[in-house]
Amino acid sequence: MNYDAAFKNIDDTLWKDAGCGSELDYIEQTSWILFLKYLDDLEKENKAAAELSNKTYSPILSNEFSWETWAAPKKADGSLDYNAAKTGDDLKDFVNTELFPYLKSFKSVANDANTLEYKIGQIFSEISNKLQSGYSLREVINKVNELQFLSNEEKHELSSLYEDKIKNMGNAGRNGGEYYTPRPLIQAITQVVNPVIGDKVYDGAVGSAGFLCEAYSHILNSKELSATEFQQLQTSTPPFGGKERGEVQQNFPVATSETAYLFLQHFIKMLKVGGRCGIVIKNTFLSNTDNASVALRKQLLEECNLHSILDLPGGAFTGTGVKTVVLFFDKGTATKKVWYYQLNVGRNMGKTNPLNQKDMAEFLQMSKTHEEGHNSWVVDVADVNKDTYDLTANNPNTVEEVDNRTPQEIIVEIEQLDAKASEALKAIKELL
């Protein structure tokens, strides 16, 4: 199935609707419809599994709000029953006044915040239907109804498509693009952190769920899983910039309005002893001299083993001018040595020359042994200034070229170049 073409068709429909004016609207409105279609596929899968075990399955949604009742009723032959399917004002009114209130109510009646019911209520408490035309809404629903999300490959492709859409937001100068993390970098971070079966994978800054999808694939392919391990995997699995409200800041020991710093503190707190983390953050975190930056670097070094720092080149994050680093650390043991790797891809990076897997190959290989080389070095924390805890990525192996010529030699070379230029101009004039 060509998901890319399907998404472009959906975007074309949303573009024509007066209620959707930006790429952000497109992805938000597509998301809630995709979610309900995915939920329907999940319900079918769970029902089939229950029947195989001679069990009775109770669907999450009541019949009148199920996908096949209001969105995609079927004829006896399995094709869409256009006569029974709501459309126009009837569809829009049903979605706005009946469907959304019903789904929002799940949040208040769910027994546990970890249940799917609660998550459904949470999702639909945060969004609303923006499509003003019930006919446009019907077009989008019909296109989504053709999609399937049951296999891991399909879910992986959906995640990748969402990353492309988030990247497009950044390229268009709209909200959201700054959160896009290139897939090769996600894969590299996942490999270094190395989640294994039994680990709880957490992405508090989840956007397109790229880290969760990669972690799932990494664990799935790490070894041959037993039936119990596979079941466990199936059922148990940072933004840059911005400011956060004062009442939220009070929940963190290091007071700051910088959301990236709040996220870093959150991840340190959430990790169990021995827990592993890879987090992207602006490179200025390593050197800023404000009290919050110094205090947070001190906390990171004293409470965690900051074993690796990946220094990324400018342009690695498509759509932003932000220069970043990736911090890799384990909680529970103070840092003694930090291994740095300065990624040098040998080209100007941007949306036409994005980061790729080949760019990450040497880093991944050297990260296993913390080998030192032209692009990598080790810093002993004992040598770090305890007043500033400055961790700036200064590559000691970079040697600046020194011009040892005397002034007279430089003047002679300039005169020679001038003479050559004069001869070239003379030859051109003769040809003219």
Mind sketching the topology for me?
Elements: H1 3-16, H2 23-52, H3 67-70, H4 88-104, H5 106-109, H6 116-126, H7 134-145, H8 152-171, H9 183-193, H10 210-222, H11 227-235, H12 246-249, H13 259-270, E1 276-282, H14 291-303, E2 304-311, E3 324-331, E4 337-342, H15 357-367, E5 376-380, H16 407-431
Parallel strand pairs: 2-4
Antiparallel strand pairs: 1-3, 2-3, 4-5
Helix pairs in contact: 1-2, 1-7, 2-7, 4-6, 4-7, 9-10, 9-15
Would you mind describing this structure in some detail?
The chain has 432 residues and is of the alpha+beta class. Helix content is 49%, strand content 8%. Strands 1-3-2-4-5 form a five-stranded mixed beta sheet, sandwiched between helices. The longest helix has 30 residues. It starts with a helix and ends with a helix.
Determine the fraction of residues in helical runs and give it as a percent range: 40-55%
Q: Determine the structural class based on helices, strands and strand pairing.
A: alpha+beta
The main pleated sheet reads as: 5 strands, mixed
Total beta-strand segments: 5
The tally of helices reads 16
How big is the Rg?
27 Å
What are the secondary-structure elements, in order, as H or E?
Answer: HHHHHHHHHHHHHEHEEEHEH
Termini separation comes to: 61 Å
Low-confidence stretches: 170-178, 238-245
Q: Strand order across the biggest sheet?
A: 1-3-2-4-5
Multimeric state:
single chain
Strand content: 5-15%
Mean pLDDT: 83
Q: Given the C-alpha coordinates, what overall shape results? A: globular
